[in-house]
Design a protein that fits this description.
This protein has a single domain, classed as Serine Threonine Protein Phosphatase 5, Tetratricopeptide repeat (Alpha Horseshoe). Helix content is 69%, strand content 0%. The chain is built from nine helices and no strands. Helix 1 crosses helix 9 and helix 2 runs antiparallel to helix 9. The longest helix is centred in the middle third of the chain and has 19 residues. It starts with a helix and ends with a helix. 47% of the residues are buried. The structure holds adenosine-5'-diphosphate and magnesium ion.
Length: 207
């Protein structure tokens, strides 16, 4: 029985590639116009490396991470690469994701991003979507909700996080060069992180 991890990554890839121009446009406003290009290139390479019959979730996530690390330039390649690699470690040998696994995936991915990029919440990065999403997810699971409904709430928090990035100054990454001029623009990485979570949710709902 295949674990579905190939389909899930392929949904993430489709979503990122569909939004390539949008993400690049966002990065044009406060960066160097390459976020969509970087991410789409990375996921194209990822899909070339994966095979539909792979079922070890940890091994697949590790492969995704290594590919993003090696194929994506800019800040986002190493950051997303590390996130997937760290998530791969907690999922090593597993062929199913239960609600506790999903919590570990969130937390290990965020820890990896923070270890590598040294950012915290409120610096106008992908973490402004991921940290509130992860916290909301854990809260909903501890209140007894199931994986899908907790993930639905997490996606809502991620979208709120993206809105929040419009109101703050970037203090990490390229956008920080703009200082106050970064206000009013949503962060490209927070946006791609939210698209990723939405793709995971859609995959899980359709399964
Ligand atoms: P680059 O900024 O090198 O051109 P990208 O455009 O692909 O790379 O990615 C930019 C995104 O990376 C930003 O929108 C932000 O979300 C994220 N980012 C940048 N630096 C950091 C960091 N230190 N920690 C977390 N995310 C970061
Ligand atoms: Mg850029």
């Amino acid at each position: 029985m295949p674990s579905g991890i190939y389909e899930c990554i392929s949904k993430i890839s489709d979503k990122i590639i569909e939004n390539k121009d949008f993400l690049t446009e966002l990065d044009r406003e406060i960066g160097d116009s390459d976020h969509g290009i970087n991410m789409a290139r990375g996921f194209q390479a990822v899909m070339e490396k994966l095979s539909p019959d792979e079922s070890d979730i940890g091994a697949v996530l590790k492969k995704v991470g290594m590919t993003l690390l090696s194929k994506v330039g800019g800040a986002s390649g190493p950051l997303y690469g590390t996130a997937y690699m760290e998530a791969g470690k907690v999922m090593a040998g597993k062929t199913e994701v239960n609600s506790d696994d999903m919590k570990l995936i969130f937390e290990s991915a965020i820890a990896g991003i923070q270890k590598r990029g040294k950012a915290v919440k409120g610096e106008k990065t992908m973490l402004d979507a991921l940290i509130p999403a992860s916290e909301k997810y854990s809260q909903k699971i501890s209140e007894g909700e199931n994986l899908i409904s907790a993930l639905e709430s997490a996606c809502e928090s991620a979208r709120e996080g993206v809105e929040f990035t419009k109101t703050i100054i970037a203090t990490k990454g390229r956008a920080s060069y703009l200082g106050e001029r970064s206000i009013g623009h949503q962060d490209p990485g927070a946006t791609s992180a939210t698209l990723t979570l939405e793709a995971i949710l859609n995959y899980m709902k359709a399964k």
